[in-house]
Automatic annotation (TrEMBL):
Belongs to the SLITRK family. It comes from Oryzias sinensis. The lineage of its organism: Eukaryota, Metazoa, Chordata, Craniata, Vertebrata. It is a single-pass membrane protein; Single-pass type I membrane protein. The keyword Phosphoprotein does not apply. Keywords: Cell membrane, Disulfide bond, Ion channel, Ion transport, Leucine-rich repeat, Membrane, Repeat, Signal, Transmembrane, Transmembrane helix, Transport. This is Leucine-rich repeats and transmembrane domains 2a. The chain crosses the membrane at residues 331-364.
Length: 396
């Protein structure tokens, strides 16, 4: 049996513990260095999904009945999607400290009552979607703090009115949808603050094209005149206008509203039930604080929020005085038509005068010629009589 030999260059002894510890220390140092160099992982609220750049947080279609822990949102988040869930109500401070968000989508939920000031901390929000919920009323301070909002979708809800003051702070709004609600009429003063509005959707509502919609029609015509777009507003009442687009209904159809106002002291208007207006509201009723409210009769729309003070405290049986707007285009058209008619009448009068003068001159000339011929005719008759007398005498 051959003796046991060691491999050349080695001692044949196992590695010492000091070498193993050194290798582990080096590996640990490398891992710590890599961890220090890599950016920390941003949190994402469960069960949401965050994009790779943390700009979009998608919490849609998760069956949520309450909001996820929004305090875990990445600081760089710009869009929060909460679509297709089961959200029915939200706390007044649900979106507190989310000023970095620019888009919030709450569509396809069961929201029926949102507290005032819900979005007060979202000063950079430019797009808000509340499409297909169960909203029937809205607090007039709901959109408080949304001075940067440019797009607002309130379609497919159960809204029956747009309260005065609701849109006052949305002066940068460019796109608004109120389609698919239960709106019968709208107040002109509620929309006058929207100086930058370019697109308005109002279709699929049961519009009652009566005196309650007259002032808003004038505002809508002004929006179209400055290049805005409005979709079709088909009337359901009265029967003679059913199915017609109110944009094509001439303003003369609303002349009876002026008669109703005169019959009711100049402030009444026909109600939806067909009855006349009630007694006018006093200043103290419209503004219990005693301060003078801004007038709703401003032509330039500067008093968009006028009369909001105490609007809900006014007696239910009184009717506010409403502004009688004047359509610029129709006023210009009326002036042009009146000028054309006056011009035609003047031309006809000049033609008639010229014809009368010519006729008079012709008749005068005819009379002169007739007078010249009468003496000649008389001399002829005298000569004839003399000839007859001479013939008689010669026969005798």
């Amino acid at each position: 049996m051959l003796p046991h030999t060691h491999p050349p260059g080695g001692t044949g002894l196992p590695p010492t513990n000091s070498a193993t510890d050194l290798a582990r220390s080096v590996s640990l140092c490398v891992l710590c260095l890599l961890a220090a160099l890599l950016p920390p992982a941003s949190p994402c609220p469960p069960p949401c999904l965050c994009s790779s750049d943390d700009l979009v947080v998608d919490c849609g279609g998760r069956g949520l009945s309450s909001l996820p822990p929004l305090h875990l949102l990445p600081q760089r988040s710009r869009s929060l999607l909460l679509t297709n869930n089961k959200l029915a109500s939200l706390d007044a401070y649900a979106f507190a400290n989310l000023s970095s968000l620019e888009e919030l989508d709450l569509s396809n939920n069961y929201l029926d009552n949102l507290p005032g000031g819900l979005f007060r901390d979202m000063s950079n929000l430019t797009r808000l979607t509340l499409h297909n919920n169960s909203l029937t009323v809205m607090d007039r301070e709901l959109f408080q703090g949304l001075g940067s909002l440019q797009s607002l979708d309130l379609s497919l809800n159960g809204l029956s009115t747009v309260p005065l003051g609701l849109l006052d702070e949305l002066q940068k709004l460019r796109w608004l949808s109120l389609a698919g609600n239960r709106l019968h009429g709208l107040e002109r003063a509620a929309f006058e603050p929207l100086a930058n509005l370019q697109h308005l959707e109002l279709g699929h509502n049961p519009w009652e094209c009566d005196c309650n919609l007259r002032d808003f029609k004038h505002w809508m015509e002004w929006l179209l005149y400055r290049g805005g777009k409005v979709d079709a507003m088909e009337c359901t009442l009265p029967k003679d206008l059913r199915g017609r687009d109110i944009r094509g209904v001439p303003v003369e159809m609303f002349n009876y509203c002026l008669q109703l106002e005169d019959e009711n002291g100049g402030v009444g208007e026909g109600s939806r039930s067909g009855q006349g207006g009630g007694p006018p509201c006093s200043r103290s009723a419209l503004n219990p604080s005693g301060s003078t409210p801004a007038s709703d009769n401003s032509v330039d729309g500067s008093s968009a929020g006028g009369g909001r003070e105490g609007g809900g405290d006014a007696p239910p049986d009184c009717v506010r005085a409403r502004y009688r707007p004047v359509s610029v285009r129709r006023a210009i058209g009326t002036v042009v038509i009146a000028g054309v008619v006056c011009g035609i009448v003047c031309i006809m009068m000049v033609a008639a005068a010229a014809y009368g003068c010519i006729y008079a001159s012709l008749m005068a000339k005819y009379q002169r010629e007739l007078k010249k011929r009468q003496p000649l005719m008389g001399d002829g008759e005298a000569d004839g009589e003399d000839r007859e007398e001479k013939q008689i005498s010669s026969v005798a």
